Inverse folding.
Protein backbone atom coordinates (compact mmCIF):
# COMPACT_ATOMS: atom_id res chain seq x y z
CA UNK A 1 0.00 0.00 0.00
CA UNK A 2 1.34 3.43 -0.86
CA UNK A 3 1.18 6.62 1.16
CA UNK A 4 -1.19 9.45 0.17
CA UNK A 5 -0.97 13.21 0.64
CA UNK A 6 -2.07 14.15 4.16
CA UNK A 7 -1.14 10.76 5.64
CA UNK A 8 1.78 10.04 7.97
CA UNK A 9 4.66 8.41 6.12
CA UNK A 10 5.60 5.08 7.76
CA UNK A 11 9.09 5.08 9.23
CA UNK A 12 11.73 3.63 6.93
CA UNK A 13 15.45 3.02 6.96
CA UNK A 14 17.56 2.97 3.81
CA UNK A 15 21.21 2.45 2.96
CA UNK A 16 22.75 5.80 2.10
CA UNK A 17 26.01 7.16 0.78
CA UNK A 18 29.17 7.02 2.93
CA UNK A 19 28.02 3.78 4.54
CA UNK A 20 25.28 5.59 6.43
CA UNK A 21 21.72 4.50 7.09
CA UNK A 22 19.01 7.15 6.91
CA UNK A 23 15.92 6.64 9.05
CA UNK A 24 12.91 8.89 8.49
CA UNK A 25 12.06 9.05 12.21
CA UNK A 26 15.51 10.57 12.91
CA UNK A 27 14.63 13.51 10.63
CA UNK A 28 11.51 14.57 12.59
CA UNK A 29 11.45 18.30 13.17
CA UNK A 30 12.78 18.93 9.66
CA UNK A 31 11.02 18.70 6.33
CA UNK A 32 12.22 16.02 3.95
CA UNK A 33 12.40 16.38 0.18
CA UNK A 34 12.58 12.84 -1.21
CA UNK A 35 13.24 12.80 -4.94
CA UNK A 36 13.15 9.53 -6.88
CA UNK A 37 15.12 9.25 -10.09
CA UNK A 38 15.73 6.35 -12.50
CA UNK A 39 19.53 5.93 -12.63
CA UNK A 40 22.82 7.42 -11.48
CA UNK A 41 24.96 9.22 -14.08
CA UNK A 42 22.29 9.47 -16.76
CA UNK A 43 21.70 12.90 -18.34
CA UNK A 44 18.32 13.81 -16.81
CA UNK A 45 19.13 12.38 -13.40
CA UNK A 46 22.45 14.22 -13.33
CA UNK A 47 20.81 17.56 -14.24
CA UNK A 48 18.09 17.11 -11.62
CA UNK A 49 20.56 16.14 -8.89
CA UNK A 50 22.93 19.00 -9.77
CA UNK A 51 20.06 21.48 -9.46
CA UNK A 52 19.12 20.11 -6.02
CA UNK A 53 22.84 20.47 -5.17
CA UNK A 54 22.97 24.06 -6.37
CA UNK A 55 19.91 24.99 -4.26
CA UNK A 56 20.94 22.91 -1.24
CA UNK A 57 21.83 25.86 1.00
CA UNK A 58 18.39 27.37 0.46
CA UNK A 59 16.67 24.07 1.26
CA UNK A 60 18.76 23.80 4.44
CA UNK A 61 17.91 27.40 5.40
CA UNK A 62 14.21 26.44 5.07
CA UNK A 63 14.75 23.51 7.48
CA UNK A 64 14.52 20.90 4.72
CA UNK A 65 16.65 17.81 4.14
CA UNK A 66 17.11 16.71 0.52
CA UNK A 67 17.49 12.99 -0.22
CA UNK A 68 17.79 11.39 -3.65
CA UNK A 69 16.52 7.83 -4.15
CA UNK A 70 17.12 5.28 -6.89
CA UNK A 71 17.52 1.53 -7.13
CA UNK A 72 21.25 1.83 -7.78
CA UNK A 73 23.71 0.29 -5.32
CA UNK A 74 25.30 2.26 -2.47
CA UNK A 75 28.66 2.00 -4.30
CA UNK A 76 27.15 3.53 -7.46
CA UNK A 77 25.62 6.30 -5.33
CA UNK A 78 28.96 7.00 -3.66
CA UNK A 79 30.62 7.45 -7.07
CA UNK A 80 27.75 9.61 -8.41
CA UNK A 81 27.76 11.80 -5.29
CA UNK A 82 31.55 12.23 -5.28
CA UNK A 83 31.71 13.02 -9.00
CA UNK A 84 29.17 15.86 -8.71
CA UNK A 85 29.78 17.05 -5.14
CA UNK A 86 26.27 16.43 -3.83
CA UNK A 87 26.02 17.72 -0.23
CA UNK A 88 23.06 15.42 0.51
CA UNK A 89 22.73 11.65 0.80
CA UNK A 90 21.53 9.36 -1.94
CA UNK A 91 19.47 6.38 -0.78
CA UNK A 92 19.72 2.94 -2.31
CA UNK A 93 16.38 1.18 -2.75
CA UNK A 94 17.66 -2.12 -4.08
CA UNK A 95 14.72 -4.10 -2.73
CA UNK A 96 12.18 -1.59 -4.06
CA UNK A 97 10.48 -1.02 -0.68
CA UNK A 98 10.65 2.79 -0.89
CA UNK A 99 9.59 2.75 -4.53
CA UNK A 100 6.56 0.66 -3.52
CA UNK A 101 5.72 2.88 -0.53
CA UNK A 102 5.62 5.94 -2.80
CA UNK A 103 4.23 4.07 -5.84
CA UNK A 104 6.87 5.23 -8.30
CA UNK A 105 7.44 2.02 -10.29
CA UNK A 106 5.53 2.51 -13.52
CA UNK A 107 5.40 0.97 -17.00
CA UNK A 108 7.85 2.68 -19.33
CA UNK A 109 8.75 2.38 -22.96
CA UNK A 110 12.27 2.87 -24.26
CA UNK A 111 13.03 2.38 -27.94
CA UNK A 112 9.70 0.55 -28.27
CA UNK A 113 10.48 -1.93 -25.49
CA UNK A 114 8.13 -2.03 -22.48
CA UNK A 115 9.55 -2.37 -18.98
CA UNK A 116 8.95 -1.25 -15.41
CA UNK A 117 11.05 1.56 -14.01
CA UNK A 118 11.23 4.47 -11.62
CA UNK A 119 9.03 7.39 -12.64
CA UNK A 120 10.79 10.65 -11.74
CA UNK A 121 8.82 11.86 -8.71
CA UNK A 122 9.37 14.04 -5.63
CA UNK A 123 7.66 14.02 -2.24
CA UNK A 124 7.62 16.67 0.49
CA UNK A 125 7.27 15.27 4.00
CA UNK A 126 6.53 17.82 6.73
CA UNK A 127 8.38 18.16 10.04
CA UNK A 128 5.76 15.96 11.72
CA UNK A 129 6.28 13.11 9.23
CA UNK A 130 3.17 13.57 7.06
CA UNK A 131 3.22 13.64 3.28
CA UNK A 132 2.35 17.22 2.27
CA UNK A 133 2.97 17.35 -1.48
CA UNK A 134 3.87 15.13 -4.40
CA UNK A 135 5.15 15.83 -7.87
CA UNK A 136 4.88 13.00 -10.42
CA UNK A 137 6.17 12.60 -13.98
CA UNK A 138 8.42 15.60 -13.45
CA UNK A 139 10.82 17.08 -15.95
CA UNK A 140 14.36 17.06 -14.57
CA UNK A 141 15.41 20.57 -15.60
CA UNK A 142 13.94 23.22 -13.32
CA UNK A 143 12.20 20.80 -10.97
CA UNK A 144 14.40 21.51 -7.93
CA UNK A 145 13.48 25.22 -8.16
CA UNK A 146 9.76 24.32 -8.26
CA UNK A 147 10.13 22.24 -5.09
CA UNK A 148 12.17 24.96 -3.38
CA UNK A 149 9.46 27.55 -4.14
CA UNK A 150 6.90 25.39 -2.32
CA UNK A 151 9.25 24.69 0.60
CA UNK A 152 10.12 28.37 1.06
CA UNK A 153 6.49 29.50 0.85
CA UNK A 154 4.95 26.95 3.22
CA UNK A 155 5.17 26.51 6.98
CA UNK A 156 7.40 23.68 8.24
CA UNK A 157 4.46 21.71 9.67
CA UNK A 158 0.72 21.89 10.06
Amino acid sequence: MSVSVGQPVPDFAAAATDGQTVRLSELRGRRVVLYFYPKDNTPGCTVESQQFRDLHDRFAAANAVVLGVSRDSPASHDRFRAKHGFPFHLLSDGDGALCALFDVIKPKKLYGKASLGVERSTFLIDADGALRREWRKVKADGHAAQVLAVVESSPPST
In short: The mean pLDDT is 93. The beta strands are 13-16, 21-23, 31-36, 64-70, 90-92, 105-110, 113-118, 121-125, 131-136. The radius of gyration is 15 Å.
